[in-house]
Design brief:
about 150 residues; globular; alpha/beta
Length: about 150
Amino acid sequence: MYLSVDVWQGYTGYWQSAFIRENFLSIGHAAWQGYLTQWRGLVACDVEVVDVSTLDWRSDHVRYSIQYIPVPEVQPYLKIHNLDTDFVHHLMEVVRTYPPGQDMLVAVFGNGQVDINWLQNLAISPPNCYHEVCNRRSEFTLEPSSDRRCKDGC
């Protein structure tokens, strides 16, 4: 199994950047919803990709799941993916101190790769992503049983 860890925004040629770009509002919604209900943490995206070289991120349907991992569960969750202990320790410091109203921490897992991103200086903040998804909920898949539903019931 090939494992790469590209920390703090990764390289632009990796498919994970395209995934984040195309699913940004949903990821931001999950980040803010998670923060509101579970305090600090990171958004983990498990992506089902087969061949990223032929994938058109703007038009092809890519199956993925989003899960918010709160601080107490981050370290055990990342250990499952065999990440370096020193890296996980450093990341835990960031998880405990990042500004959740401005930044997002996103872990993208798929195709045998792990990509951790600290998204900063965002044009659309996590609270704004949350409200955009709530206001345009018909464009997003928010299952009634999902923990990604808007807190105000949208």
